[in-house]
Specification:
The protein is built from two helices and two strands; from the N terminus they run E-H-E-H. The chain has about 60 residues and is α+β, with helices and mostly antiparallel strands.
């Protein structure tokens, strides 16, 4: 399953509803059928490992 994780900038308000419509429109217009995410998750920041890479295990 493909998940899309969205991290909004600090300056944006935390109203995710209006952003989800824009993101869905972008996905419908730009992504292939097999590349469309089934779920969109909004998070405040990406989890990082001690080295500084994105911790993919924690995102699952």
């Amino acid at each position: 399953m493909i998940k899309l994780f969205v991290v909004l900038d600090r300056d944006y308000p935390k109203d995710f509803g209006k952003y989800s419509e824009e993101i869905n429109n972008l996905i419908v217009n730009k992504a292939s059928i097999y590349a469309k995410p089934k779920e969109i998750v909004y998070i405040e920041k990406l989890p990082k490992t001690l080295i500084g890479k994105i911790d993919v295990k924690e995102l699952h």
